[in-house]
Amino acid sequence: MTAATESIPTRAAELDARAAELVRQSVLGDLARRVVDECGADVGLVGVPDRAERPGRMTLRHWSGTRADLLHGLDVPIGTGLGGRALAERTPTWVSDYRAATTISHQYDTAVGAEDLYTMLTVPLVHGTAVHGVVYASVRTVVPLGDVRIGSVARLAAAATRALAGAAAWCQPPGPAAPPAGLTPREREVIRWAATGRTNPEIAGHLGLTCNTVTGYLKSAMHKLGVRNRVELALAARDVGLVGDPVS
Q: What is the pTM assigned to this prediction?
């Protein structure tokens, strides 16, 4: 195998990572815009966790409807402000009057004041154990949020989260499939030996079985795996994780 051939999987992985990142940026930017266009917010923001370089923090990376730039690129440690609290608690949080709220920290009053924001809702983008970010929906007046407005932002957040999870999965190498549940422990043992190229007499000798018994196990396993010969059986055994290091 040439060096050029060896680099093909690496290049493919790099292209997948770049494509996934483009999808991610597009989804997050679109989310900030749609919060404004579809949910009655004056300002939409999306904060993205900084996992690798600065764990425990997020940065506001996407915005729509802003008048100043103090919120652009704002650093938000987990647990601080409304968005940091949503990130820490993994649940939506909101206040009708940000400036008068006593339930949140106020490190960002200058930036919020520059945008003349009052009502604010934050929804974390959570999929399983992964938090992909936090979306902010903010209004420049004191208004009751209500279930309709909260629900509309939450639905957008859920749709974006599914897209982000899909983009993340794009870059994950597939793991081995689970062995079919119908295989018996003895069939799996025989398959492992057969997949390493051992003959039926050799398998029988190692396992203390007769050749006819080994043949019977192999026929039954081939039927369950949907394969027709020992070559296909070996490939199927590797695909479902039955074969790792060679049996010695």
A: 0.66
